[in-house]
Amino acid sequence: MKLTGEDFAVSRVNLYEQIAGRLEEWILAHNFKEQEKLPSEQALAEEFNVSRNVVREALKLLKERGLVDSRNGTGSYVTKPDVENLSDVISRMVAIEKINYREIYDVRIILETAACKRCAASVTEEQLDEMERLLERLKDRSLSVKERRELDFEFHVLIARAAGNPLLEILVGAMRNIFVEMIEKGIFLEGGIEDAIMRHTNILTALKERDPVLAENAMYDHLYVSLKNVGIYLSDKQQV
Fold first, then answer.
1. Cα 218 to Cα 199: distance, rounded to the nearest angstrom
2. From the centroid of its chain, how far is CA 60?
3. Using an 8 Å Cβ cutoff, are 26 and 59 in contact?
4. Could you tell me the CA-to-CA distances from 200 to 49, 56, 79 in Å, in that order?
5. CB 203 within 8 A of CB 222
6. Strands 75-78 and 68-71
7. Which of 31, 67, 132, 164 has the greatest count of CB atoms below 10 A from its CB?
8. Can you tell me the distance from the alpha carbon of 160 to that of 170, in angstroms, rounded to the nearest whole number?
9. 3 state SS of 32
C-alpha cells in the first residue's frame, strides 16, 4: 500500500496538519466504505516517516472533520461527515456574522422553492406517502414544541430528498439548527400550528398533482407567511 504516491517532504511547522491533509486526500481519493479500517498508527507513522504522536494528532484532526472515528484498542475507521456538525458550524457563523432572520429566510426561499419545484417532477408515490404520514403526525395537538419543530423540519428535508439532488438535501439539512429556531417561533403564535399544517397540506397537494409551478408557489407562500410570523413574534418579545 502506498499512500503518498511521491516523495513526501514537509516542514516541521504544523506537521500533524500536513499529515492530516494528505490522509484526507487519500481517504477522499479512494472508494472507502464507511467504517472501513485505516492502517495502524505505526504503519502510518512509517509511511510518512513521522512519530506516532504526529499521526495521532492528525487522526484527531480528521475526527473533528468527521472523516475518522477512533476506537480505543481497535484503531481508526473511515466515517461520513455528519450533517449535524455542518449545521453547528453554520449556526456559529450566523451568530458571528449577525445574520438576521430576514436573511435566513432569503436563503430558505431560494433553496426550498427550488427543491419543491424539482420535487413535483420527481417525487415517488412512496415518498408522498411518507410525507403524508409525517403530516398526520403534525396534526397531533399533544406534540411537544421540540417534537413538532423536528417533524416540521423533517417534512422539508423529505422534499429536498425527493427533489433528487443529494447536494440540495445536504444544504437543507445543514441549515437545520437555524431553520428549527425559526420554526419554533411560529409555533408560539396564536393559530400558528393550524396555519403551518394548512400550508404544509397545500404543499403536499401540489406535489401530488405533480405541478412544479403550483408546488413552488405553495412553498413560497408557506415561507413568506412564516417569515412574517417570525417578525411578529420577535416584535412582541421586544415589547415585553
1. 7
2. 22
3. no
4. 58, 49, 35
5. yes
6. antiparallel
7. 67
8. 9
9. coil
Q: Is the pLDDT of residue 211 over 90?
A: yes
* Alpha-carbon span 33 to 139, nearest angstrom: 40
pLDDT at 50 over 60: yes
pTM value?
Answer: 0.78
Alpha-carbon distance 224 to 92, whole Å? 25
C-alpha cell at 61: 484532526
- What is the Cα–Cα distance from 184 to 23, expressed in whole angstroms? 41
C-alpha cell at 235: 416584535
Give the position of cell 419554533. Answer: 184
Decide: 116 and 216 in contact? Cβ < 8 Å: yes
Of 144, 79, 156, 82, nearest to 112 by C-alpha is 156
The answer to whether residues 23 and 58 touch, using CB atoms and an 8 Å cutoff, is yes
Report yes or no: 218 and 204 within 8 Å, Cβ to Cβ: no
- CA dist 198 and 182 (Å) reads 18
- In three-state secondary structure terms, 76 is strand
- Can you give the C-alpha Rg of the chain in angstroms? 23
**pLDDT confidence band for 2 (50 / 70 / 90):** low
Paired residues of 175 in beta bridges: none
